């Protein structure tokens, strides 16, 4: 169990506004000490190699590489550090991917700071894996996921498309929800299938959720 008063924190997010807001909020608690701030995957890796950290608070998709790269880099460079993913995406699939990659919590950036800080503190203290309550229970999602390396090849937008596919959305509805064209959706779907090594859409979703393909074709 980590003593919160001595918790060394690395903040990783492409937005300087987000990292500065987190830094101020954590400082006010007098429990955390921010020892590094990074805005790209490369900067985060340099910090992890050179600075001792107990906690990494990172966006799901940091500029410079595929999603969750910083989560995996933390496991490599600072295996004892705990990782909290702070994301804008209210996607159970993304949350499951984050936990399977090694994060101990998946929280939403839209949460009030008064709610976020206790959850981050609990994660540092060794609480079980935490999912933002607004995502609902992930109990229905089996633990099996594609290897992290496969998921990590997807771009942030491809993850968006995959999450909508998992909800049973066809290309037209995905295009409407993500404000992109049908042709763009088709391009992303082809890239997802290729990168995951999936036979078709149902197979790609089955790989993510660990269900049989038939469970998704009629959703």
UniProtKB/TrEMBL annotation:
What the entry lists under InterPro entries is as follows: CheY-like_superfamily, NreC/VraR/RcsB-like_REC, Sig_transdc_resp-reg_C-effctor, Sig_transdc_resp-reg_receiver, Tscrpt_reg_LuxR_C, WalR-like
Pfam families linked to this entry: GerE, Response_reg
Keywords per UniProt: DNA-binding, Phosphoprotein, Transcription, Transcription regulation
Please, which domain of life does this record's source organism belong to? Bacteria
Q: Which residues form the HTH luxR-type domain?
A: 147-212
Write down which residues bear the modification named 4-aspartylphosphate.
59
- In this chain the Response regulatory domain maps to 8-124
Q: Does the record bear Transcription regulation in its keywords?
A: yes
The answer to whether the entry has keyword Transcription regulation is: yes
Question: What is the recorded name of this protein?
Answer: Response regulator transcription factor
Q: Which organism is it from?
A: Lentzea indica
């Amino acid at each position: 169990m980590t003593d919160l008063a001595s918790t060394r924190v690395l903040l990783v997010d492409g937005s300087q506004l987000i990292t500065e807001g987190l830094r101020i909020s954590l400082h006010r608690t007098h429990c955390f000490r921010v020892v590094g701030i990074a805005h790209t995957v490369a900067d985060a890796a340099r910090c992890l190699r050179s600075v001792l950290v107990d906690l990494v608070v990172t966006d799901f998709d940091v500029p410079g590489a595929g999603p969750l790269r910083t989560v995996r880099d933390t496991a490599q460079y600072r295996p004892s550090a705990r990782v909290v993913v702070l994301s804008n995406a209210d996607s159970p699939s993304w949350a499951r991917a984050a936990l399977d990659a090694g994060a101990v919590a998946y929280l939403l950036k839209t949460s009030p700071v008064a709610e976020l800080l206790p959850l981050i503190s609990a994660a540092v203290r060794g609480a079980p894996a935490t999912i933002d309550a607004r995502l609902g229970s992930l109990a229905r999602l089996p633990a099996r996921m594609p290897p992290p390396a496969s998921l990590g090849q997807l771009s942030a937008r491809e993850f968006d498309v995959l999450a909508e596919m998992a909800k049973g959305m066809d290309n037209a509805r995905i295009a409407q929800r993500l404000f992109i064209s049908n042709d763009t959706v088709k391009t992303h779907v082809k890239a997802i299938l290729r990168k995951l090594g999936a036979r078709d859409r149902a197979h790609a979703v089955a790989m993510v959720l660990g269900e049989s393909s038939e469970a998704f074709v009629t959703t």
